[in-house]
Each structure stands twice: as C-alpha cells, then as structure tokens.
Amino acid sequence: MKQPCESIVIEILPTIRAELSKRLKQREVSQGEIAEALGVTTAAVSQYIHKRRGDDFALRRDTQRLIDDTAQAIAGAEVENTTEEICNICRHIKEKRLRCSEKSRRTEKEQPREREWLISSQL
C-alpha cells in the first residue's frame, strides 16, 4: 500500500498543477510564466493544459475554490512562494481526508481503498 505522501506526490500534485495551469492560462498568463511559477517545464504546462497529464482526478468544489483563489493570487503577483501555496492545497486535501473520485484512467489492478482518502467530486 502506498504511503499518503507518496500518493500526494505521484497522483494529487500533478492534478493540482494541471488545475493551476488551466486557471492561469484562462487569466492570460503565458506558459513560460506558469512553468516558472510552478517549477515545471513549459512542456509539462502544455500537457497539463491539454489534459495529457494530471487529469486523473475530479476535485471537490471546496478544493477547486482553493485552487482558483491560488491561481488568482499567482496571476495578480500576490504570491511570493508558489510552493507554499501548493503545499497549502495538499494540506487541505490531507487534513480533510477527502475521498477519491477517479476518472476513467484507473487500472484494473488498483485497489480503491488505497486512494479513498484523497479527493472527491461529491460536492
């Protein structure tokens, strides 16, 4: 069974980055600026925006609002440390022990209970 932090890094962090990338792009932030803010490559940002990476999970509304607020702050240059903001989103998910609602990419081998505490789309 995966450790909670391992699940966050491998599964949830890409989803958070993808959602932030999409929201920042909507606010007309360039892919280069998004990449710099998120600490990833422009190629990764392109994959996030085009749903080729980080599109495995649906997020709860409260988590979506938190990501939207973070994107607004990043776009408005109100954030000094993007890593800290992303950590706050991860903490929110972890503290709420939110349940997982995966999209169609889950493989047959994966056990639902391994991920059940992560996120949910049930709100």
Main pleated sheet: none
Classification by helices and strands: mainly alpha
The level of helicity is: 55-70%
How many beta-strand elements? 0
Any idea what the radius of gyration is? 14 Å
> What order do the helices and strands follow?
HHHHHH
Give the end-to-end Cα distance, rounded to a whole number of Å: 27 Å
- Count of domain modules: 1
> Which whole number gives the mean pLDDT?
81
What count of helical segments does DSSP give?
6
Q: Sum up the overall morphology in one term.
A: globular
Strand content: under 5%
**Uncertain residue segments:** 99-123
Please provide a written account of the structure.
This protein has 123 residues and is mainly α. The protein has one domain. The protein has six helices and no strands. The chain has helices at residues 4-26, 31-38, 42-49, 61-75, 82-96, 112-115. Helix 1 runs antiparallel to helix 2 (31-38), helix 1 (4-26) packs across helix 3 and helix 1 (4-26) crosses helix 4 (61-75). The radius of gyration is 14 Å and the shape is globular. The relative contact order is 0.19. Residues 99-123 have low confidence and may be disordered.
